[in-house]
């Protein structure tokens, strides 16, 4: 296949190639802002006798919160015996789905750019190439909608489980009348919020790119040719009968 390689950077100046490069960048930001996350909340326990205790809650991708220990061993806090306790919830499926789609898009964008820049002459002459490209681009746009929505819900579940209300409902000690629990230092989840934004941005970019890929298919060329033929037919005048 390398015998047909002809390097041509011109497609990068056109929407077809330029948008594909943008898709490559946004995919990096999407999985990078989610896949490498790690944060810690500090939970303060206000005991009845005026003495305070603190707990550190560390969680990270893929957010299997049910495996994150609030207390790793039986202990005594605020003069109460507290058993081993874990957070509640598991957002791993939505987080890994989101990151998986981003990685697939990252790899496909590289392959597509290689085709555009080195094999554009073969891409244009082929019916299969543009049609396959269009079908996959449209499918990926839909996948971005699904995985971004799922991850947005998963992220909200993470926030709820690691917030004051979630900790209070999970830790039995917090239900004691002489103990109050509060998350006094929250992990910075800005990058996770950004990942959701990039997810929906990717959906928009891929959906827009589907139009430019569609213009390379024979479906568009046949429709355009038919419209041109119909326009030419209407432009012809029928000679008047003598």
TrEMBL record:
Spans through the membrane: 21-40, 97-119, 131-152, 194-214
The organism's place on the tree of life at top rank: Eukaryota
Matches recorded under Pfam families: MARVEL (PF01284)
GO cellular component entries: synaptic vesicle membrane
Family annotation (InterPro entries): Marvel (IPR008253), Synaptophysin/porin (IPR001285)
PROSITE patterns: MARVEL, PROKAR_LIPOPROTEIN
Protein family (similarity comment): Belongs to the synaptophysin/synaptobrevin family.
Protein name: MARVEL domain-containing protein
Taxonomic placement: Eukaryota, Metazoa, Chordata, Craniata, Vertebrata
Gene name of the record: SYPL1
């Amino acid at each position: 296949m390398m015998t047909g390689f002809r390097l041509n950077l011109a497609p990068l100046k056109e929407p077809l190639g330029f948008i594909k490069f943008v898709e490559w960048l946004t995919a990096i930001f999407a999985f990078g802002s989610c896949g490498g996350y790690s944060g810690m909340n500090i939970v303060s326990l206000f005991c009845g006798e005026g003495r305070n205790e603190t707990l550190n809650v560390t969680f990270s991708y893929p957010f299997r919160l049910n495996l994150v220990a609030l207390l790793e061993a039986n202990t005594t806090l605020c003069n109460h015996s507290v058993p081993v306790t874990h957070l509640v919830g598991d957002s791993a499926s939505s987080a890994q789905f989101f990151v998986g789609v981003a990685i697939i898009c990252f790899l496909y964008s590289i392959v597509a750019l290689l085709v555009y820049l080195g094999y554009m002459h073969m891409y244009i002459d082929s019916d299969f190439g543009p049609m396959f490209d269009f079908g996959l681009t449209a499918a990926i746009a839909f996948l971005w909608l699904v995985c971004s929505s799922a991850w947005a819900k998963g992220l909200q579940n993470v926030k709820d489980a690691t917030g004051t209300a979630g900790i209070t409902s999970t830790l039995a000690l917090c239900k004691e009348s002489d103990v109050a629990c509060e998350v006094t230092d929250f992990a910075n989840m800005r990058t996770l919020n950004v990942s959701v934004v990039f997810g929906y941005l990717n959906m928009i970019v891929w959906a827009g790119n589907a139009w430019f890929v569609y213009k390379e298919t024979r479906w568009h060329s046949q429709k355009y040719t038919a419209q041109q033929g119909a326009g030419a037919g209407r432009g012809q005048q029928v000679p008047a009968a003598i």
